[in-house]
Amino acid sequence: MNSLVNDRPEWSCYCRSDANFCHSGANFQKEFASIGSDISRRILAKYIESQHVFELNNAKHILNTIHQSLVIDDLDFSAEPALLRKFALQKADLCKNFGSDKFALQQMQALFKHYQLGQLHYNKEEAIHRLTDSKFWLRRIRRKTAECVSQIERAMGFVSKRHAIYCGDVSVKRHQFNLQQSQQYLENTYLTNDEGLTIPLSEVTAHTVANPIIRRHELMVRIRGFEEVAQHSDHSAAFVTITTPSRMHATRASGLPNENYDGTPIKEAQNYLNHVWQLIRAKLGREQISPYGFRVVEPHHDGTPHWHLLLFMPPEQLSNFKRIVSHYALLDSPNEKGAQKYRVNFVDIDPSKGTAAGYIAKYIAKSIDGFAVGKDTFGNDAIEASQRINAWAKSSSIRQFQQIGGPSVTVWRELRRLKHCDNPEPEINNAYHAADSANWAAYCIAMNAVGTPKNQHLLAPYYEVQQNEEIDFNTGEIVLTATNKYREAKKPVIQGIAYIGGSLMVPRTRWKLIQAPPQTHSGGSLQGGTCCVVGGASLGLV
Asked: What is the full DSSP assignment across 379-394?
């Protein structure tokens, strides 16, 4: 990828300004159709549309550089889907031919590593099962393709407030296409149960946090609840922004290329911020400081991630908290120009000027659906900006929101699935009524989850291994198994709520997926809190 940084376009003064044409007058498609791939040509063509066209030979050189960045030996990440499926099948078959001993696993791992498809955090048997599965190869290839395309656009300087803000246009188009494919799948897939009720999968997802509106509402309820807890406890609020060293930024604030950019991909920049927070969190723990709140990850205009954190804590801990955060945020390159001013920034929330929840609300909305934001920092329409931010997060597998401290949101959602709760323990009933009324502050207090470790919280998620019915082809009998498709022991899945002395099971209806549209659609209400479970995985309220 570093070659891309060195091969950024150099404009020639004798180029024609007609979009899609070079100085020779040759048509873009005619000149470049035989070079590179569809993805690499789209990356170059999109940039030519917004700039004076560069000299023909230079354009061909850049196009080749882009394409080479998408190829590792016989794996072309820009190939058609059918060819990628064929490649995945070939490599899975090759791994099968290696055998299943320790030496065979080493060969498989070396092959997988050669194609730079990510880490394999599995034991021997788990790794062999996956490396001999073409679907596993294909999933990793698709993920790597999205990361590569996103990084190419960014490394070439195509992502900035001057061109394509937050995320490259090709990555955005790919993300939109994937959303359309996913929606088509949801609309053409149904859930059915033993009682004959059939529901489109699209209806189910519309009533879960997969729906951006529900996701935004739930996040704001939780943030506002934390603020109410802070007010009740006389705690202070701090808004913190942490960003990366300048060498990780592809483009300057002006929109011009950053000559010090070292080629760091988005994912690695996010890993850097994660590592900084791990150091901060460990030090805060040693200092007995337990902040609670939320973290939001956003892209700079050039796609480089930065963090916003809204955290609450006792006021006497605030100065020590700032000292610790500043220390670790500036461990890397503390003396570079602008580090003290831009790398870490604190804003003390003044309640007389507005709420803490209101302060972070615009960042939440901008990163989900742009609701009620109007314009972003750079004057772009917030709804369009949110679409680009979502494409950015998806292409680099960025987790945009994370709760810090406080009670389990899984328990909160489990309690909200219940139609009623008559537990003999009054504390559990208090937690249920708080969750049922969407009162996050009361839920935090009922859970004893403010400034306390998880093992002191009232409730925790309760997990069980779910069994499947399968046919024993030797006997013809239906038997219960607890293995996944790789014949490994299944991981436990959420089944309810655990507390000292027992567990509270949340009723669940068993559903199965069917691809063909049913003859009759029985509809049914999505109210009432029956949970949809397929293959042991909860799909939300139905």
From this structure: S-BHHHHHHHHHHHHH
